[in-house]
Each structure stands twice: as structure tokens, then as C-alpha cells.
Amino acid sequence: MSVLLPEFRTRLLLTLLCLAVLFWTTATLAGGFPETSVELPLSPLPAGLHSLMPVPVENPLTTAKIELGRKLFFDEWLSRDGTISCASCHHPDKAFTDGRALPVGIDGQSGRRNVPSLLNSAYGKSMFWDGRAASLEKQALHPLTSPAEMGNTLEAVLARVRENPAYRRLSEAAFGTAAMTPGQIAQALASFQRTLVAGNSPYDRQLLTRDDSVLSEEARRGFALFRGKARCAHCHEGPLFTDQKFHNTGVNWGKKPMDLGRYEHTGKEDDKGKFKTPTLRNLLLTAPYMHDGSLKTLDAVIDFYDRGGSAHPNLDPSIKSLSLSGQEKTNLVSFLRALSIKEQ
Ligand code: HEC
Ligand code: HEC
User: Does this chain's domain 7-194 share its CATH topology with 202-337?
Assistant: First the structure.
């Protein structure tokens, strides 16, 4: 009897090649981002990440696809007027965010949601703040045709890549054909993004070495608060500090026009105002915070939770005022800082 498994259950586990590619990319994150050529030293994933990364069966990771995906990711010519690439909003130096509250797309148009980091999105069970795309592959074509982002048509994108000799060569290597399909563009972009991993933060090194000098006393106390009194770990759990679920913390409820979050995808009353729990890794590179970019600093985030979020009819029951002391707030911020690749 054949059993139909949901898409995420059908993914393959990581191969050695994948491990190598992932390591290579992490190594390059520290010092800029080469646009060409891949070297693949064999080495484990960065400390702190789950050692098995889900990769869809129908899109195994290959070096050729990753190279093609990288070129697509950085190519402004894929937008209607040649001014915007994926990297315009997902900049490598900012953990693949843009440093703004809200993004700026084609013709200077403002987007309505804050740009999420793409680091470790390979582990994501759904994409976007409302989870409306089920995988990196399903997400990848949205920005190309979104009128407020890259503003192009798939026909125009296809024509541009099919007539370009560099793309024809890369596509031939990746897919055995010089004329890419939209599905292949999505596969290549997804493959490239699977290499954007980052771990090995001070927190991970402390766990690995059990050397208490790696984390400050403040950060260690912050971790205890994070799991205890402050209740953060109710939702921010696991290696990426997210349960990958959707919760209502009341961020910007009542703002006009209202962003209904997860409800826009599911139509369920109960989902109004719910957003995906974001990872807490690399926050030092990804300010401002929240789906609307409304909180500029980590101190402001802690104050927000200390107040018990914002009032909302659907507010999550674990969001309550916390009565944190000034020192406890400082400790929590120290802990959050210790989850970044680099302390700044
Ligand atoms: C104009 C800015 C902009 C451009 C250009 C852009 N993005 Fe995004 N990206 C965003 C914003 C904003 C979101 C969150 C939108 C939402 O949740 O509704 C997002 C979300 C994502 C996500 C989901 C991440 C997660 O964890 O949920 C992925 C993956 C992604 N973008 C990849 C890409 C790729 C690939 C390209 C190029 C083909 C691209 N983006 C181009 C702004 C942009
Ligand atoms: C009920 C689940 C829940 C709890 C408890 C919770 N969070 Fe969150 N957190 C979320 C969700 C959901 C978001 C996104 C909210 C939005 O943008 O509307 C978020 C956003 C954040 C962000 C912004 C990240 C970014 O990239 O924009 C930080 C930082 C954060 N939380 C830290 C904490 C800390 C620290 C605590 C404990 C004091 C905590 N959270 C408690 C669910 C939770």
C-alpha cells in the first residue's frame, strides 16, 4: 500500500557533499562573499545547528545548482528595470536582511513587512512571516514577480537568462539544458540559500566546550531567565530558537492598514495577528525587529515583553507582564547578543 506523506516528510537527509558546501559558505560569511568559484573542504556543520538538514528529494544539492543559484541571487537584471536583486533586500553583510524597518523594492516602493534573515532558513518548515510558502522552492519565484519587489514577469526573466551565455553554461551544468524553466530557477535559488548557514556563536561554543569563560556571567544569567521567569523558551526553542509555529504577541495590533498575519493565509479567525516565531540567531546583524520593524533595539524588545506585549483579543497566554528588574533586562540582552556569529 502506498502512503502519501506530507511534503516535509519526503525530504532526504543531508549528504556529505552538503556538509562540505555548508561549511564553505559559513567560512565565507565571515569575510565577504565571493561571487564565483566554489571550493569544498570537508568539514562538519557549524556548532549549534542540527546536524541533519532537510533537503527535498526532488532537489538534491549539487555544486552546479548552488553556483547557478548564487548568480541568480545577486543579479539585478532579473528585476524589471535592472535595479533590484534578491541581495538588495537580503544583504550578506546584514545576515541577509536590509537594515531597514520596511524594505524598498522597485520604483522605490515600500514593502509592508520587515525582511527576515535567510541564515539557516534551510531548516525552516515554512517561509514568510505568515508561513504562506511551504518551502524555499515554493518561495523563490514570488519576489521576481511581486509588483512591489522585483516587478518582473516570469516570461521576461526566462528570456533574459536563456539568452545570456553565462547562464546558459551554468544551467547546462546544473540541469543538462541551457533553457531554464521557472521550476529550475526556483530549485537553483533554493539550493544556494541552503548553503547560508551560521552557528558557532559564543553560546554554541560555551555549550560545546563547557568553558564558562566563553559566556559572560550576565549572559549565563540571561539564559536562565530566558528559560525560566521570562518564558521566552515557550516559543523560542531548539537550535534555532524558534518553535516554527505562529503566535500572537500583539505587535502593532490596530495599526492601519492592519496586517492580519497568519490569518491571511489560513482564513481562520484564531490566526488573526499571529506571526511566525523568528529565529533569535544573529540579532546583532538584523535590527530593527518584528514583522513590521517597529522595535529598533534589543532593549526595546525586552521592554516590550516586560510590558506583556501589546493588548490583543487573541494574545498568546504566555505573553504576560514579567516584572523584570533593570539587571534582569540587561542579562537577557547579553544572552541574545551571545547568539550572533560575531559579538559587536
Ligand atoms: C524588495 C525587497 C525584497 C527582495 C528584492 C527580495 N526579498 Fe525575500 N523577503 C522580503 C520580505 C519583506 C520578506 C518577508 C515577507 C513576508 O513575510 O510576507 C521576504 C522573505 C523571504 C524569504 C522567507 C524567509 C523566512 O524565513 O520566512 C525567503 C526565503 C526570501 N525572501 C528569499 C528571497 C529571494 C530568493 C529573492 C530573490 C529572488 C528575494 N527574497 C527578494 C524582501 C525581499
Ligand atoms: C508566545 C510566543 C513567544 C514568546 C513567549 C516570546 N516570543 Fe519572541 N517572538 C514571537 C513571535 C511570534 C515573534 C514575531 C512577532 C511579530 O513580529 O509580530 C517574536 C519576535 C521576537 C524577536 C524579534 C526577532 C526578529 O528577528 O525580528 C525577538 C528578539 C524576540 N522575539 C525575543 C524574545 C524574548 C527575549 C522573549 C522572552 C522575554 C520572547 N521573545 C518571548 C514569539 C514569542
Answer: yes
Q: For the segment 41-54, what is each residue's pLDDT rounded down to a tens digit?
A: 334 688 888 878 88
Which superfamily is assigned to 202-337 in CATH?
Answer: Cytochrome c-like domain (1.10.760.10)
> 322 in ligand 1 pocket by Cβ < 6 Å?
no
Ligand 2: centre distance to CA 224 (Å): 17
Identify whether the C-beta of residue 12 lies closer than 8 Å to the C-beta of residue 57: yes
**Domain locations along the chain:** 7-194, 202-337
315 and 249 Cβ atoms separated by less than 8 Å: yes
Looking from the CA of 324 toward its CB, the CA atoms found within 13 Å total: 29
* Ligand 2 environment, Cβ below 6 A: 230-232, 234-236, 247, 249, 251, 275, 277-278, 280, 283, 286, 289-291, 301, 305, 316, 318-319, 332
How does pLDDT run across 199-256, given as a tens digit for each residue? 999 999 999 898 888 999 999 999 999 999 999 999 999 999 999 999 999 998 878 8
29 pLDDT above the threshold of 80: no
Q: Among the CATH numbers 2.40.160.10, 1.10.760.10, 3.20.20.70, 2.40.30.170, which is that of 7-194?
A: 1.10.760.10
| pTM of the predicted protein model | 0.90
Alpha-carbon span 106 to 110, nearest angstrom: 9
Q: Label residue 36 exposed, middle or buried (CB < 10 Å: 0-12, 13-18, 19+).
A: exposed
The band of 33, judged by pLDDT with boundaries at 50, 70 and 90, is very low
pLDDT at 316 over 90: yes
Ligand 1 center to 208 CA (angstroms): 33
Residues 6+ apart with CB under 8 A from 262: 130, 131, 246, 268, 271, 272, 274, 275, 276
DSSP state of 330: H
Q: What average pLDDT does the segment 311-334 reach? A: 95
